[in-house]
C-alpha cells in the first residue's frame, strides 16, 4: 500500500508505522499480521478452510460411502443418532457423509466457475477499457447486455438444453453454464477502474518506453487493481455457489451424485418438509449459508483494506500507541 | 431526451440479443437437442402429424435454410407465438405464461419495493448513528442472512411458519377451495391473496435487504462527511431535515444505479421461491418445463422474464434521470 499524503490523517500515520514495522518481518508474518489486523478476513478464511478440510478429509471423517450401496438396512430416513450424526436419507445413506463428499462437488464447481469467470472478467474488462474506441463500444455493449439479462433463467435454459442435447447431466456443464452467466458484473467493475488507471503517469511512462501491449495490461495495470479483482472473485464465488446449488436443487445437475444441491433436490422430492424430516434439508442449507457468509465476510475485509473510510474506529490500543508516538515526535 | 433515446436503443439491442440467443443456442448444442426432444415425444405416443407440426413450430425443419428459420422465428415471436407446451400438452406456452406472469410481477414488485424502502431507511439510520451497537451488529447479521440461498430460506420459513406453526398457507397463490372459479374482486379474495403471498415476500425481503442497507449506509457515510452537511448542521437545521433532504437525497443515487443488478437477483430468487411455495408464477412453470424437458416452456419463460426485467430497468433509468439532473443534461 502506498502512503501518499504523509501525516495528513492518523490513518496514514498508522500505515506508515506499520510499514516501518514490517521491514523486520518475513512475508509469512506479514500475512499473519494482516489477518490479525483484519478479523473479518481472518474469520471468513477460517470458516472456508474448515469446509475445504472437511471436503478433502471426507474419507477419514466418515466410514460410510456417500451414495454407493447402502451399508445400512434401509429403514427410511432416520433422525440423527449416535451412528449417523446427521441422520440418514430415505435410502439409508448417511447424511454427514453426503455433506462431506458433497462439499467436494459443490466447492469444486464454485471454484472452477469463479476462476474461469474471473479470467473472462479480466480479459473483457481490461481490454475494453485499455483499447477504447470501437473495441470499447462493442465490448461494453456486450458486457451491459449480458449484465442486464437475468442470470438464473438464462442458466436454467442453458442447463436444460444441455441435458436435452445428450451432453448429459454433469458437473462440468453446470460449471460452464455458471461461468458464462456470471462474468459481466465483474467485467464492468474492472473496466471502470481500468479507465481511470490507464491515465496515470506510470502507465504513460511505460507506454513511452515502448512496452508491449500485453505487458502494459497484465504487468502494469492489472497488479494495481488486484484488490478489486480479489473482491470480484470472491463475489463471483458466492454467486456461483448459490446458483450451482439452485440449479442442482432444480434437478438440472447430476442428482445421482451427492452434492449440496442434489441433497436438497432429494429432500424436496421426498417431501421432507411435509413429513417433518428437517435433517434432510437443514445441514446442506446451513453449509451453503456458512460458506457464502464466510466469503462475504472476506469481501468486507478486502473492502475495508482498499477503502479506509469504511473502517470502524481504530482499536483503542493502536490509538494510544499513535498518541504516544506523536508526543515523542 | 437524447439520453433516453440512447437508453431505449440499448434495451432494444439487449432484447434482440435475448431473442437471438434463444434461437441460436439450441442449434449450437452438440447432438441436436431438438431432434432428441422430438424423439422423446414420439415415445410418448404423439401422432406423426402433431410431431410434424411441432417440428415446424420450432423451425427445426432441416430443409429450410437457417436465415429463413430465423425470420420465421422472429415472425412467430412478433405474433406472440411461443410454441405449444408439451408438459401441459395442448395449451400454448404464451397462455400459460400470460396467466403466471401477473403473480410473479406482484410478488417481485411488492418484495423489491418493500425491501428497497426498509433497507434504505435502515441504511440511513445506521450511517447517522455510525458506531452504535446496532450499526456494528446488524449489517453483518443481515449479510449473513442474504448469503443464505433464497430457496433454502424459503424451505426453512415454510417448514417453521407453514408446517410447524401453521400460521401461513403452504402452497398456491390463493385459497383454491374457497375460490374455485379463479380470481375475483372481493375483500375475501384479496385477504386470501395477501395471506398466501406473505411468506414468499418475506423470504425475498430477507434475502435482498442487506444489499440496500449496505449500499445506502456506505454512500451515506461518505456523504455525511461533506462540508455542506456540516454547514447545514451549523445553521441549526433540524436533524431530520439534514438527514433526509440534505444527505439521503444525494446518497441514494448509488442504490438506484445498482437497482438493475439487484433486480435480476431478486427475480432469480423469486423464481426459486415460487417453486418452493408452489406459487403459480413464471418460476414454477420454468421449473416444471425444465424437469419435464418442455423446451418451448423453458425458452418462452426465459424470454418473458428477460422482457419484464428489461422493462423494469428502463423504468428505473427514467426515475434516475428525474433524480439526477446531470444525466438529463448529458453531463454525466
UniProtKB/TrEMBL annotation, chain A:
Chief localization: membrane
Pfam family, one: BPD_transp_1
Domain of life: Bacteria
GO CC, alphabetical: plasma membrane
Localization per record: Cell membrane
InterPro entries assigned: BP-dependent_transpt_permease, MetI-like, MetI-like_sf, OppC_N
Name the UniProt record assigns to this protein: Peptide ABC transporter permease
From TrEMBL, chain B:
InterPro entries reported in the protein's UniProt record: MetI-like, MetI-like_sf
Main localization category: membrane
Cell compartments where the protein resides: Cell membrane; Membrane
Keyword Isomerase: no
Segments forming domain ABC transmembrane type-1: 101-316
Gene Ontology annotations of biological process type: transmembrane transport
This protein's UniProt keywords: Membrane, Transmembrane, Transmembrane helix, Transport
Membrane topology: Multi-pass membrane protein
A Pfam match: BPD_transp_1
Protein family membership: Belongs to the binding-protein-dependent transport system permease family.
Protein known as: Peptide ABC transporter permease
Source organism (scientific name): Thermogemmatispora aurantia
Taxonomic placement: Bacteria, Bacillati, Chloroflexota, Ktedonobacteria, Thermogemmatisporales
